[in-house]
TrEMBL record:
<dbReference type="InterPro" id="IPR004150">
    <property type="entry name" value="NAD_DNA_ligase_OB"/>
</dbReference>
<dbReference type="GO" id="GO:0003911">
    <property type="term" value="F:DNA ligase (NAD+) activity"/>
</dbReference>
<feature type="binding site">
    <location>
        <position position="436"/>
    </location>
    <ligand>
        <name>Zn(2+)</name>
    </ligand>
</feature>
<feature type="active site" description="N6-AMP-lysine intermediate">
    <location>
        <position position="126"/>
    </location>
</feature>
<comment type="similarity">
    <text>Belongs to the NAD-dependent DNA ligase family. LigA subfamily.</text>
</comment>
<feature type="domain" description="BRCT">
    <location>
        <begin position="617"/>
        <end position="690"/>
    </location>
</feature>
<dbReference type="InterPro" id="IPR013840">
    <property type="entry name" value="DNAligase_N"/>
</dbReference>
<dbReference type="InterPro" id="IPR001357">
    <property type="entry name" value="BRCT_dom"/>
</dbReference>
<dbReference type="InterPro" id="IPR001679">
    <property type="entry name" value="DNA_ligase"/>
</dbReference>
<dbReference type="Pfam" id="PF12826">
    <property type="entry name" value="HHH_2"/>
</dbReference>
<feature type="binding site">
    <location>
        <position position="124"/>
    </location>
    <ligand>
        <name>NAD(+)</name>
    </ligand>
</feature>
<feature type="binding site">
    <location>
        <position position="296"/>
    </location>
    <ligand>
        <name>NAD(+)</name>
    </ligand>
</feature>
<feature type="binding site">
    <location>
        <position position="414"/>
    </location>
    <ligand>
        <name>Zn(2+)</name>
    </ligand>
</feature>
<feature type="binding site">
    <location>
        <position position="320"/>
    </location>
    <ligand>
        <name>NAD(+)</name>
    </ligand>
</feature>
<feature type="binding site">
    <location>
        <position position="181"/>
    </location>
    <ligand>
        <name>NAD(+)</name>
    </ligand>
</feature>
<keyword id="KW-0460">Magnesium</keyword>
<feature type="region of interest" description="Disordered">
    <location>
        <begin position="583"/>
        <end position="617"/>
    </location>
</feature>
Amino acid sequence: MTEELVVDARVAEPFLSPEDYRAAVEEIRSAAALYYGGAELAMDDAVYDSLMARVAATEATHPEWKAEESPTEVVAAGGGVVGDVVHSTPMLSLDNVFDEETLRRWAARLDRLLGRPAAGYTVEPKIDGLAIAARYVDGHLVQVATRGDGRAGEDVTGQARRAAGLPERLAEPVTLEIRGEVFMTDADFEVANGMRTGAGEPAFAHPRSAAAGTLRAQDRTYDAPLSFLAYAVHGLGDGAHSAEMAAVERLGIATTAGSPAGMPVCATVDEVLEAVQALNAKRGSLGFGIDGAVIKADQPADRAAAGFSSRAPRWGIAYKFPADTRTTKLLRIEVQIGRTGVITPVAVLEPVQISGVIVTSATLHNFDDLVRRNVWPGDTVFVRRAGDVIPEVTGAKLDERPADAAPFEPPARCPRCDGEIDRSQKRWRCTRGRACGAHESLAYYAARHSMDIEGLGGKLIDMLVAAGLVTDPADLYDLDVPTVTKLERMGEVSATKLVTAIQASREQPLSRVLTGLGVRMTGRSMSRRLARHFGTMQALLDASVEDLQRVEGVGPERAVMIAAELVEIAPVITKLVERGVNMTEPDTAGPAGPGASSADGADRPDLPLRKPDGTPMTVVVTGAVPGLTRDEGNEAVERLGGKSSGSVSKRTDLVVVGAGAGSKAEKAEQLGIRIMPADEFAAVLTAHTS
Ligand code: IVH
């Protein structure tokens, strides 16, 4: 019955022909056979779920096409490896929901079945591993079997005995059956890959397939770690699920309830939704992969009354989170050198959407890891983005490696300064450390568009760095005239001028400090937006990834990057503060802390460059504006509530045209965009700021 499968005929598109339907059924069956057999994932979860939803939708509209033993009806979509251990009761599946509405529909249906509201629900993590049943006799672990086809599974006692959380002996001599999930924590996965590549085998691509392969392994020379969390027990009486899990935990078995994810008991669906959201929010910090939340009626009476469909209980449901792992193509590997000289390989990816975010690059951690994970340019790779964590490439699909692919050649010398590379640690470093990037970061800090320190040019920076006087921008403020005079060709007059210019730069607004610090994925105008939004450096440093996303133009990927960058440069910021560098933005309404109203004028429709709906006009300044440099012109646009842009398009709202304007002014005329002469713009600015 497809009614049982809450995945969703409402949103999924049915297939239009029986041939397409059957092809999809076959595709699901073969992917499921690989998945449950412990091989590498044949398709990523999101694709699998949506194919399954389309099959269900087709069966709802064309029941006459329905395949015998449709994957929507049978456990493990018919893909489980059947063994000879017959389960005491069938090991069933769970139906899925993907959003609030379908969860509410499920709960309403449960209430209808019961004829009254359910007496409480539990919310626990849905572990992304393999279901097993473990039999204990008189407190001793005697047999462990996989789910198989739900009726009988394979004996995996040998390997499962090693799983942390599934002890050999219990605290009491009880006889019972535990059901739960064998999986690899993130730490297990690291260790497992180290062992595997150490044994000369290709790395595991994904924690789930690593756990599946390990659980079913017969004759490996190494024992990769496994973990276990129980989610059900048979033979402990007939208590509430929450009470039973607490009892299982007391016997010494690890449970989902006792894991960092926890298992709150909720009285209402609203509380359930809150708990599901809270679990999703901490998904990235659990230390193991989950692919959703499982909601269950807590009371045995409710469970008995609700019963089962052919493949799943009606008293429980899986609320699937958006897939955190997808596959995509690794276009190339770039080498990034951090501020402290750390050299990191970065994956440039064919854009892929992972839990609502387009991911285009991901970390590859370090060069050892790159070899260990056996990832080559051109490979189809698994990319994981868990919570707020920067996306990572976990492995490659080796069977899809192009014939002409070749491993990546790590750099022999530092790509930035040509210095030697220190390879003694996992994280390679340029032996010049902070000094490696010092020239670049100091030049950027001193530049006209940043802190505008007159006289601090490339040659002088080289001399200061070579003399060991300066490695980061904050060191500039420690320079005094006698020290600078000691440099080659530096008289007292120029030294005084330089030191004065450096000291004067302490008054620059926060937006310029931010620009000067060169936060990755931000430029001048983004720095201005950030400064204007938060008002002070402290408010910016205190901002969460969500707070950052309230700034125009900051999406989730950029927000994560900015947050990570701010953590990295925090020590330099502290040094700058200690040296009296201004960390506030003038003309802002003050700090916009979490929940505070925005200081960037988003709530100020009175600004001259706002559209009637309060959103910023897109403004291009071309040619000279009297009294302003080009940068100042752009700053002025933003101060007046607009958004400055460098090129004219249909989306431009206004073009400010000054002396010497060229093709941009012509294009604006052709497109019929409003034009404002530069002197009029200057007058608006004066009127607004005076
Ligand atoms: S309860 C009668 N709880 O998800 C079915 N299952 O998609 C009882 N799973 O077969 C299952 N975490 O392998 C339950 N906390 C959890 C789970 C969980 C993972 C797996 C389990 C199940 C599959 C259904």
